[in-house]
Amino acid sequence: MLEVRVKKSFGSFSVDVDLSLDEAGVTVLFGSSGAGKTTLVNMIAGLVKPDEGFISCGGKVFFDSKKSFSLPPDKRGLGYVFQQGRLFPNLSVKNNLLFGPRFCGRPFNPDLFAKVIDVLGVEHLLSRMPNYLSGGEIQRAATGRAIMACTSFLLMDEPLSSLDAERKGDLIGYIASIPGNFHIPIIYVTHSEEELSLLADRVIHIEGGRVESVEDREKERPIYC
Predict the structure, then answer these.
(1) Cα–Cα distance measured from residue 162 to residue 171, given in angstroms and rounded to the nearest whole number
(2) How far apart are CA 74 and CA 22, in angstroms?
(3) Collapsing DSSP states into helix, strand and coil, what is residue 3?
(4) pLDDT tens track, the chain, 225 positions
(5) At what angle do helices 93-104 and 110-120 cross, to 10 degrees?
(6) Whole-angstrom Cα distance, residue 65 to residue 81?
(7) Would you tell me the crossing angle of helices 110-120 and 135-149 to the nearest 10 degrees?
(8) Is the pTM of this model over 0.70?
């Protein structure tokens, strides 16, 4: 269970969220641009410090303002996929993947490494440098690196926003397969109705920095080749 009770102010805008998430499936944070979705995810990841509140996952405390405690990002066991992938340009795809466990101090697991390569279809990319990858290939490699680092939740902040329709369709299939293949829950940020309908097991609707609603959903469950 991920518990998040946080407040954060940026001038006239503030985020004030209190929610609990089960450690299963895909939870979509849905709302318009500027609603506070990315800020919330960044607070969970430890990239933005809340003004006050409490964050814990599976009983492990990430943040507690009353105790002036904030666990560093690399100790939280979270994988993070950003909008632009952010692969290290001086490392091959293989070495980007291997950086994941090194970043979080997780022992290298050769079976997990082999499964990531197989499930995400990146074997033919392992020797390539990021400059020679398409947008979709970059996001697949970035997703693999995040899975290699992850021991709790996988955070994905609009990972399809820079892709064209064809590559979006391809990557949605890979993302949808992650919880079942790796037993990793996903928190997925988007303002796309299509992505929500194809990926969400549950939806948290955020507007103006507040949770407006929480609902369970049936996926459209498309068939991927």
Answers:
(1) 12
(2) 22
(3) strand
(4) 899 999 999 999 999 999 998 777 999 999 998 999 999 999 999 999 999 999 999 899 999 999 999 999 999 999 999 988 789 999 999 999 999 888 887 889 999 999 999 999 999 999 999 999 999 999 999 999 999 999 889 999 999 987 888 788 888 989 999 999 999 999 999 999 999 999 999 999 999 999 999 998 776 544 333
(5) 130
(6) 26
(7) 150
(8) yes
